[in-house]
Amino acid sequence: MPSYSSYHQLGLIENWKQFSILVLINAFVGGMVGLERTILPEIAEDEFGIAARSAIFSFIVVFGITKALANYFAGRFAQQYGRKNMLIVGWLFGLPVPFILMIAGSWNWIIFANVLLGINQGLAWSANVIMKIDIAGKKDRGLAMGLNEFAGYLAVGILAFLTGWMASEFGLRPYPFYLGIGLAVIGLTMSIVLVKDTEPWVNLESKGAGTKKSSENLFWRTSWGNRNLFAVTQSGLSTNLKDGMAWGAFPLYLSTAGLNLAQIGMITAIYPAFWGLFQVTTGKLSDYTGRKHMLVAGMFTQAASLLIFPFLSHFYAFLVTAAILGIGTAMVYPTFIATVADLVHPQDRAESIGAFRLWRDLGYAVGAVLTGLIADFYDLSLAITATGMITLISGLYIAVRMDSIEAPVSNH
User: Of the candidates 61, 58, 60, 125, which has an alpha carbon nearest to the alpha carbon of residue 93?
Assistant: First the structure.
């Protein structure tokens, strides 16, 4: 049998066809989240009469916890059962989601749909991320993650806008969710027919790895045992804590500010759209500048946007600030996973990324619970401000405690 290196090479150019397929599939994965982004809080209030903020945010809590756990198991089992198989199973869990959201007769069915959506996102997105890193090689790792998150979160923004527009024109249900049926069917079909498993590329990179395979428990090492990995993990949790807040609080806060559903849809769409658009640039830039600089700048940009948000009152001011929040998120999101991949051996990569993504996506649940409680006892404005302070403290921790990691292509 020929060696892996005789027919596999690392790099985006060398693997552009497979990489492009994975980018497109991740856009469909991201679009599944965009289905809910604008209209689900409105459905909770208008159709089910749910007034308590903490109850409305329950769907985000369930989604965050389920996705976090699915992330970890996707990473843990990817090496054992194959990346492609994790991707396909993820789509099988996502297929029923739009149907349930269309016909749900109680809020409990919405919660159940978000359990399935969390599993879909955890398995499918994690498998997709790991496969892109497998084939990209170290010098293109930041760019690979930038393109991955660009596709996923641009799709979140596009679907958030489209569902908001369709809801304003045709009603909250069922028409906006027809889009989800198409996303799930096409994504599953492409994953089965077009995707190749990437284990051969992992074996190739392992031969020349500059780091040693860890003898430690990888979950422990990624979560707390390594100072640099912990710095990345806590900032990932803080970033998604912010997103859990924004997902639930922004539509409701903007509604109380007097904006209509179409305007709310634009604002809730521009944040993930800019998050997606700018990640190609920020991901590649982190390959040159080093990861720490990008992480610190991104956390501070997010914090500033959140702290300004409650003082705004006009549509265009909200729109610009949401765009800046998206840019700040774009600075950190591809850099998180690229940093984890830099710090671990290729054979440890899948489980280490799964552990990081578990903690990062638990931020959804923490953010939703925290926001719901603050909003019920005080108001949504304070919830947004508190989230901004948490984000600022997280950025300061990286600045003080994390080592500067050499830029992967600093010698180019």
Answer: 125
